[in-house]
Structure formats: structure tokens, C-alpha cells
Amino acid sequence: MKVSVIIPTYKRPIMLKRLLDSIALQTYSNYEVIVVDDFSPNTNEYKNVENEFKKKIKNFKFIYNKENRGACFSRNTGINNSCGEILAFVDDDDEWISTKLAKQVEVFKNNQEVSLVYTWAKIIGPSNKEIGESKESIEGNAYKTILNRCFIPSPSVAIRKVVFNTVGQFDESLPACQDWDMWTRILKKHKCAVVKSFETKYYKHEGETIGASPMAKIGFVKYYQKNLLSLLLHLQIRHLYRFFKWKIETHS
């Protein structure tokens, strides 16, 4: 069972190198890595990373966007250039434990009904200090839960590639909440499972992130708009309140 690891990156070659070092140590060997650089200005630094990991990782692709298009475009580019039946997504500033892919593939092999597998994650803050944990145990039909909250750590996810034929790819019109939107679309039709061990390091740092920008609120509003009927049917009062409040604020 081949895994395609898809990594969007932008202006963070040092963090990308840390991630790739962790991927190179995976105990599961049947994988390829696809890095998509979103037109970063520091091309020479990225070329150095590319040359280094072509030697360390057997199946390694590095794609350079011809203009800055955003993380979703880069993820979709990775999907379109992948050949694995499992797609594992991770951002350039995060990190994996060496057994992550092996444990996720085992879940996929043992349960054909599962289309998405996530893992527990350690949340790492400034100075590489642990500041929290994501330790969910939600499995099976989880659509109502994902509408209520995004319980899936984005750098921990692995998904059967065939799923994208029915749910579509990442929504490039969303400035934020792209991951939540994708997990919502998947779990509306498919089941999930979790590896109950800490296989992912999810970094919260002081660098550039969409989640900490004014664009985040616009992303939430667009997500709510797309899922408004489901939010109403499942009585997601908190999100409905935010939707109408933030919709007014973002249009003022």
C-alpha cells in the first residue's frame, strides 16, 4: 500500500528540513514525498533542501509553483501528481514520529470501511516546549462531531485517494478553515479512525500563519456559509451565532 506524502511550503526551508528529516526516519518504507513550493522568494535555500533530500528519500518530488497560489492550490497540485493509494498531508512547520505511517497503514489494511485515519498529536509552542495535546478518540460516523468542532489535527491525517473522486479537492477559495472544510466533506460520506498514540508534533509558532490573521474570520464565515443547512439541522447554535455575527462584521 503506497503512501504519497504531500507538503505545501512557503518561505520556511529550515522548518521544511526538520519535517523532512522526520519523514526520512519513517519505519514504513513504501512512500513517496511531494513538496510543493508556493513561489517562495528564497529559491536557493529550497534548492539546497531539494538536493539534500533527493539523496535521503528514495521517491522524492519537488514542484515549484510559477506564482503564489496558496496552500490549497499546492495541496491539490500534490494530489494531482501523486501515485499512492493513501495520501498523507502535513504542513512544512510540523513533524512526525517515525512510526506514524506504519500505524496508519495498518489501520487502513485492517478496516476497508475507514477512509480517513488521524493520530494523536503533541502541540509544541515557542522554544520547542510542549503546550498541549490533541488526544481524541472519535471514530466511525463522525459528521455531527466534525460540524461541532475540528477535532482532527491537520498534520496527522492520511486519506484514501479514491475519496477525492467523490468529495472533490481542497477548496482554493477559502482563505482559512480549508482543512476543517475538507474533513467535513469527507466525514459526511465516510468513516474515520484514530491511531491512539502520539505520532505527530503540531507546532504553534510565532511565524506567519493564516489562523492568526484577519483572513481567519473570513474563512470561518465561508465555511459556515457552505455548511449552513447542516449547522441548522444539527442545531449548532454556537456556530450559527458566530456566522451571523461575523458575517456582519466582515461586510461592515
User: Main sheet, how many strands, which sense, barrel?
Assistant: 9 strands, mixed
Low-confidence regions: 207-212
Helix coverage percent: 25-40%
Number of domains: 2
* Binned strand content: 15-25%
Please identify which CATH superfamily of the largest domain we are dealing with.
Spore Coat Polysaccharide Biosynthesis Protein SpsA, Chain A
Query: Could you say what the CATH topology of the largest domain is called?
Result: Spore Coat Polysaccharide Biosynthesis Protein SpsA, Chain A
The name of the CATH architecture of the largest domain is Alpha-Beta Complex
Roughly how many Å is the radius of gyration?
18 Å
Number of helices: 10
Order of helices and strands: EHEHEHEEHEEHEHHEHHH
Based on secondary structure, the structural category is alpha/beta
